[in-house]
Write a structure and sequence with these properties.
The structure is a homotetramer.
Chain A lengths: L4 E10 L4 E4 L5 E14 L6 E13 L1 H10 L5 E14 L5 E9 L5 E4 L22 E3 L33
Parallel strand pairs in A: 4-6
Antiparallel strand pairs in A: 1-3, 1-5, 2-3, 3-4, 5-6, 5-7, 7-8
Chain C binds 2 DNA strands through strand 1, strand 3 and strand 4.
DNA sequence: TTTT
DNA sequence: TTTT
């Protein structure tokens, strides 16, 4: 369908260390559980209440999976941009079941760490695993510096996608 | 959890005329099925391929439900902004089941019609039902023009939310 | 125009302690400078490069301004959801000038603190100012618990916007 | 800065036929003016009011520029996803000036046509210019079907980004 | 002027 | 079950 958008944006915390599996032909798949929550004040009692929502996030992409594998631990706060996908499967009794997930796969998928923490407790900021910066990864895939007249200079992403940062394009 | 975001943005087409039900205490609930799809070209065959994703959208809110009831028909193209929510229920055999929906309920939920069409076939643009504009509705609720020193002038939304459009605030 | 969306989403750091001023009729306005940046690797030299973008954010809304006043300090990391607005003004020589800002004003505007830090240096996480959670504020305004048959229970936002959390709506 | 997001989402109408220029080394740049508007009811007079916001959109990217060149005309309704960028320039008197634009350049930038219309008046839907579908273009660049063990099958995007649609990955 |  |  022309003119279609399917986008999910989450900021939340990872509920457990991610699992990473591989397909038969070797591609990695990472599964994350991410919690978001909202708080509000009860209209009658005035009490503070909270509701947590858990999201299943599935990462298909070598680069993104590497980031997940190396840096994402239980408790990490993430920014996620992906798409909704519902897949159908059969339970043991052969009945159709459906699971909806946030998929980070194609174009526009992003995963950014919003803190340098892992494993719930300790704050790793400073004594960092990250060697100078929380990792962020956009789903570029293996986008190479192919053609399109990009003769030199910096490229954010390679190929015709990028405009050299130091170009002084007279626009 | 502080610092949490749960946001879904969809642009897609409505698969069937919406159902609107009411809770026991009279509040309306609208259910929509929205299709998004993506197209791509097969790497090997070069064929054009398409994958459609169906989304369950649930609207809690009188104002939004009215818009849905009056204007949203099978085939309509909508912009939706809501939140992901998974609810648990029991099937006939007593097993736990989960359904994930895009909920338009609280703050920040939006539904906008991107065409003036309904009912699949006819293009109503021009000979419009809409009196000069496809309807759009943000989930303001019954936000009244309460207090907060807003003495006069226009208000986008009433209350302290709004800044009068014609004010010439020297910022 | 029907079917219009104007949305900006930023995650970045505040460049300086916010300024808060008041209009003549007493409404607060907060101004923030927020930095976002992207990093990439130079295609030729292989060096890591970075480009920072500075955004002017203007907050109209008493509740949001209070959060800004109390919690947002230089260095804080924020999630911002607002709208683009360009205003025209005259410089000293009487020439038209334009400034584009991210406005948090009406419906859908949000500001969430992504860390509990302020004032650049110290990490306040743990010995927190926040009493157990970084503050987040949606631009609800003075949305009261008006009408719409909401007889009791919790409300996220008051009025017809909300569905009681503990309701067991059979949808 | 790690953990940074700079995202603009617009749905609006194009104010004039786009201009497309080329850099000295031949790369295309398209400039669009897009209008969004919001309507509200005046709190006092009860009149319907409307405020239109104009956005400067700049497209760097061969693929996206082609779409703009071929399909985007005055009056077209677009979905745009890009980033905010402010550039500095000097006016005739040598004073610094700043212009803020929505840039469609790198990763995550999208342009989708939400109708098949061009040139304000006529509805081209049906007797379409589009040969069977309003065009949509994500900023993939020249992402080729490079390596990463993708042996065959369909790919949404080529390279390690994609998971073959017909794979039956047991996740 | 932030952050890493 | 939509749309192109």
């Amino acid at each position: 369908m022309a003119g279609s958008v399917n986008k999910v944006i989450l900021i939340g915390n990872v509920g457990a260390d991610p699992e990473i599996r591989r397909t038969q032909d070797g591609r990695p798949i990472a599964n994350l559980r991410i919690a978001t929550s909202e708080t509000w004040r009860d209209r009658n009692s005035g009490e503070r209440r909270e509701k947590t929502e858990w999201h299943n996030v599935v990462v298909f992409n070598e680069g993104l999976c590497k980031v997940v594998e190396q840096y994402v631990k239980k408790g990490a706060k993430l920014y996620i941009e992906g798409a909704l996908q519902t897949r159908k499967w059969q339970d043991q009794t052969g009945n159709d079941r459906y699971s909806t997930e946030v998929v980070l796969q194609g174009f526009g998928s992003t995963l950014t760490m919003l803190d340098g923490r892992g494993e719930g407790g300790g704050d790793r900021r400073g004594g960092s695993d990250f060697g100078g910066g929380a990792p962020s990864y956009d789903d570029y895939g293996s986008r190479p510096s192919s053609g399109s007249g990009s003769s030199g200079g910096a490229s954010r992403s390679g190929g015709s996608l990028s405009r050299d940062m130091d170009d002084d394009i007279p626009f």
